[in-house]
Amino acid sequence: MATGRTHRPATRSRGIPEATVARLPLYLRALTALSERSVPTVSSEELAAAAGVNSAKLRKDFSYLGSYGTRGVGYDVEYLVYQISRELGLTQDWPVVIVGIGNLGAALANYGGFASRGFRVAALIDADPAMAGKPVAGIPVQHTDDLEKIIEDNGVSIGVIATPAGAAQQVCDRLVAAGVTSILNFAPTVLSVPDGVDVRKVDLSIELQILAFHEQRKAGEEAHPDGTGPAAVTRESDASADQGPDGDVPAVMPA
Amino acid sequence: MATGRTHRPATRSRGIPEATVARLPLYLRALTALSERSVPTVSSEELAAAAGVNSAKLRKDFSYLGSYGTRGVGYDVEYLVYQISRELGLTQDWPVVIVGIGNLGAALANYGGFASRGFRVAALIDADPAMAGKPVAGIPVQHTDDLEKIIEDNGVSIGVIATPAGAAQQVCDRLVAAGVTSILNFAPTVLSVPDGVDVRKVDLSIELQILAFHEQRKAGEEAHPDGTGPAAVTRESDASADQGPDGDVPAVMPA
DNA sequence: GTGTGTGAATGTCTTCACAGCT
DNA sequence: AGCTGTGAAGACATTCACACAC
């Protein structure tokens, strides 16, 4: 299953921290915008503001890549764009397949940010025979039966799953068996994959739930300017259980 | 990533760790599935496997909510579903507006995972006059001109931005001025918001770039048959997943 | 003077391992 | 005997603050 791995030995000095990797695309976007406006150099302070992080973090992140700045001056925009692109592997072309061409799949297929970042939609795949041949975003949809051939013919190593939850694991298994080693999963399910396959997961529902948590907290705390927040946790007592400011009525929710 | 809140003051002593909050929806989904199969109790080990995390982490997470388990036995499924729902604020109804009804906005409007989790699409808003009145997912699209009125009339506090990048900040400003305090941003741009407004961001392009980074690394190091090679990843990230049992399609993406 | 690069300090998250309850 | 709940240890991430290069 997806979890795993009791042993991950010490990171060799070569590795870039995961948190840093996750921010590189952010910096890259900000730099690209500067590049388009022909801005030659930028300071950590300015770039950090554009990327929405603080400058100390940005400098620390860049320090893992190397010393690409000039003290007293800042960073050369074009040079940094290249270095980050290279580090992320975007100087090469990544063919990608999208499986599941429903509302979401179509939206993804139409997404313009692909080509500009080294990604190319190599194929669209759907299980519905009625979809086969229909062009979406200018690319004809192909049937799931041909999935393996499509992967192999195009040398695809990155797959995007936009199917309903029920189909996701099966699609995933076929993708992996055909040679895909990185998966971006939009289906609301936990995928299990063999070791060495990378899965990232995006789900609207989770994001909204996290927002709801903070939203609820705001509402509950606006009567506590001192920060004493609503009721301390109900340790021990499993009977009473209540803490929210507004006593909500029970009833476990439906699915 | 996602901004937990632009700058949370140091006064956070009673709170649930952000990392834990981000996993609660995951547990909730696994529990909901168990509930539907009428499973009465579950151990931390089993539930952890279903949610794709390890059991120590899960127990620690639950310990922040209270002592809801029974030693030697496990957790009562229904009870936990209720407790987590309440903690996340899902026992109440959250009206949500979606702004920008393009491919992505339509996909979001059609997303089934809303209602099942306490979210209700109160309105769809688009700047294109040609869209006005057209029903998407059974809900008529309204024009941007009426944004403020819609927000106020429906008591909306959560907004979803699915517009092109160029329009996002402006839409955001209007949402915030009208009273929205939580925003889920699908546009590939950094939004600036006043203190007290919570923004989370979902960006397809970033997810793909992170995958490309690891993919490149695998390719570069595949000469390590002894296992010294690249760490098995199976990422979880901060923008992740969830949802209900069958066939919902989540969505995401920038323009 | 200006702004980078980075050790050291601080804070957060995960994992371990076991005491304690059922 | 079994499984939770949690201090303590460890890994990881962020922030501080300043020496150093330009």
From TrEMBL, chains A, B:
DNA-binding region, residue range(s): 26-65
Subcellular location per the Swiss-Prot or TrEMBL entry: Cytoplasm
Quaternary structure annotation from Swiss-Prot or TrEMBL: Homodimer.
GO BP terms, alphabetized: negative regulation of DNA-templated transcription; response to redox state
Transmembrane segments: none
GO molecular function: DNA binding; DNA-binding transcription factor activity
The protein, known as: Redox-sensing transcriptional repressor Rex
Key words, A-Z: Cytoplasm, DNA-binding, NAD, Repressor, Transcription, Transcription regulation
Lyase is among the record's keywords: no
